[in-house]
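Pilot study result, target chain (169 residues):
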Amino acid sequence: MREIKFKPADRIKVIAEIASYIDSLEANKQYSLTIKEVKKKRSLDANAFCWLLLDKLAAVTGMAKEEIYKSYIKEIGGNSETVCVKNEAVDALCKQWSFNRLGWVYDTFPSRLQGCTNVILYYGSSVYDTAQMSRLINLIVQDCEIFGIETADTEKLEKLLQEWGVNDG
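Predicted structure:
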């Protein structure tokens, strides 16, 4: 496998590099080519801070930190898809969706179509952009403040939120 990072303006150089790579491949095998947008990885510090605060909330509320986390996911906004599925497929869809990761949760509500159910599929924070992660951390910080839990000072919090999206690798 070979990864080539490029900008559309570099297309001639990229085409030449891809052609050269293709020429080096075994002729009797089949290959696939995927082109996707390069996105910055999330800041591990922001993620660690998120879970540190969730742990503190769990200690005070007696709730599991994972359940607290899941409850915030539905409040973020811009992190869901709503699909209409046949009633007999709802359980399988929801079960499979939840297998993705911890924060991949769902809600259901009746459809106007007979024999169907609407399912809201929420994406977890593993795929959040900077704005969504900022909203998640801000929600957690607000609840920590309600319970008198100490959080980072404003300056440190702003720095963590700005770092979200920075590649730590």
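One observation from the pilot: Residues 24 and 93 are 42 Å apart (CA to CA). A full batch analysis is planned for the follow-on phase.
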